Amino acid sequence: MIEVRGVTKEYGEVVAVRDVSLEIGRGELTVLIGPSGCGKSTLIRTINRMIEPTEGTVEIDGVDVRESRVEELRRGIGYVIQTVGLFPHFSVRENIATVPRLLGWERERTERRVMELLDMMGLHRSFADKRPRELSGGEAQRVGVARALAADPPILLMDEPFGAVDPQNRARLQEEFYSIQKRLKKTVVFVTHDVEEAVRLADRIALMRAGRVVQYTTPERFILEPAEAFVSEFLGIEYPLRLLGRHSVADCYRKDAAPGDTPGPGQAVPMDTPTREALSLLVASGQKRLDVVDSDGRVVGTFDFESVLGLLGGGPGGEG
Amino acid sequence: MTDSPLDKVTMLGVLLFGFALAVPAFVTYRPSRIVRGEPLSALESAGPAFWALVALLLVMALAATSRGSVLRGMPTALVGAVAAATVVWVVGLAAQGLVTSEAPYARVSLSAGFWLALFGAYLVVVGGLRGYGGAGSAALSVGIMPLASVAVMLVAGHLDDLSIMREFFNRRGSFLSELSTHVTLSFSAVGAGTVIGLILAFVIFRYVATERYLFFFVNLFQTIPTLSFLGLLMAPLAFLAARYAFLRGFGISAIGWAPAFIVLFAYTLLPVTSNALAGFRIVEPRVLEAARGMGMTGNQVFWRIQLPLALPVIVSGVRTALTQAIGNTILAGLIGGGGMGTIIFLGLAQAAPDLILLGTIPVVILALVADYAMKGLSEMLSRSLLRGSQ
Ligand SMILES: Nc1ncnc2c1ncn2[C@@H]1O[C@H](COP(=O)(O)OP(=O)(O)OP(=O)(O)O)[C@@H](O)[C@H]1O
Ligand SMILES: [Mg+2]
Q: What is B172-389's CATH number, 1.10.3720.10, 3.20.20.140, 1.20.1250.20, 3.40.50.300?
């Protein structure tokens, strides 16, 4: 668990981060979001002491980060920087192996790990011998993430890790990272200024503005209880719809079918349809309700506007 | 360059070459070393071999003016290289023809025509290589070909009747020892300067506040003219040597190798320090951020990231320093420090141009070779650091 307590960072007159306190649960993915210059990078970098706060403390599992040697602390925290920053004179293999080498791993173990990470990131193993120059933006980002994961650190700090890729690749990287994270269950602090990305990945979101955390809660609660007008303004009018993308029909349909029911004359939706799509189908059908069917085509319940409202109104907190 | 019908450099080379064949002084003939010379044209001195030069001139002219691509580029460069080698061969023949058993003490010196022809051929090579589109190993072999031919001619004794070779045979022993002194002096001074320059760059890099003071000295050395620098060192070195016997034991005195070494060393500092510093500083901030963020210590960041990335730039600084030092080492000859300067200044004192040449040519070749080798090293480093696997 990461505990940020009253952290302030001043640069002369500029207050980059102002009295921020956050508790980040183990195995959770917390997104820091906010407009450019609001202090996201500054805040995330106080965790691995790339920046020393002017005031306040950061604790990891109850231990002040200042208590360990700074290099040791950093070797135990995966770090993906905003601008990738691969070492241009190292091969992809050497880039990924950076921290294992600092930790003095054996050659074979390091090599196995490099291959494992290339597989995990969906990069062909032959990439190991390439240089960063020879990679596309998306490939470089993957290598950046692989490098951060190399020594299997429990904590991952990611500062706009997918910032430098085009929207399509970005969505793919997000999906891949999401499924990796579901498996690895790292404690992740993830910086972005893209609401869509935040909604896709976050267990919790900390919305920042001018150095302060305006609100820190689950993505759903931002709709129910926005802390101030800025919240709805920043998240945008389509935020509720984006939120539906996190759920499937299975999370919200009404189980009101009697055993043996067959689909009515209208359209039916499979249970694993994303809610956003199901809503779209509902609107298109011109009806008030749709039958929900399971994988065998049996009717199991009803999907209607109330299911959607139930979901946004503080229903089950995410599918993961 | 490639698509213009006429390459200006090649054309100029051809014109110079043609002109050189016509000038009255291709070589200078003297019945003995001390007598006034008499100029001889290429036709007068070389006899039938003259027509080989004319033939080459025609081929080069054709290559330079042809619009077709066949004779452009590499072939042109090759013809130029052959022409350069042939010029040397012809001058050897001329000397053999002029120094006969009736006139065994006759001297045949290289004159304006010879040098012009050589320079013209060189320009044709350069122009051809430009048309060919750059350097690379092919260009290197074209450059080496005439040098290798001359080496063969030297070994085979083809050039032995030239006055410059006579001078060489007269002082073969001292020539070789001065050459080795020259190499030792320039390389050791640059070596020491590189080590200290790197340390200075590191200190400045780590402690920015020192930049003004350290660079003040490094720049100061560079602004003192070489000769004045040597003069300035005399008094303090004489004092030190008189005061401390162990310094005398090292051979340190107001004249000799010590002041030369110090001057050469001091001149190395600026190019090495400033290049190394620039090299350390061009490493992108994000790369440094990543290195520190991964948990590298300050030393690890320096040795694993900054130094390797700066290496090509550092090598190019050493290259500047080395080429400069090889030339400057000539001045060591003025103060008894040895080196090719000893031969050159002797030649000046005796008004013997061939002796001066004998001292100069090796220095020029040495500087060119060192320059080319360092350039290659620097390019190889940056290529292998940034691209290519392994
Ligand atoms: N080294 C520094 N010196 C002075 N001011 C700084 C420094 N680093 C950051 N700041 C300022 O602190 C504020 C927060 O910067 P920070 O990099 O944390 O923003 P950010 O939220 O990450 O922005 P972005 O989304 O553009 O990356 C900005 O106003 C910035 O100008
Ligand atoms: Mg930032």
A: 1.10.3720.10
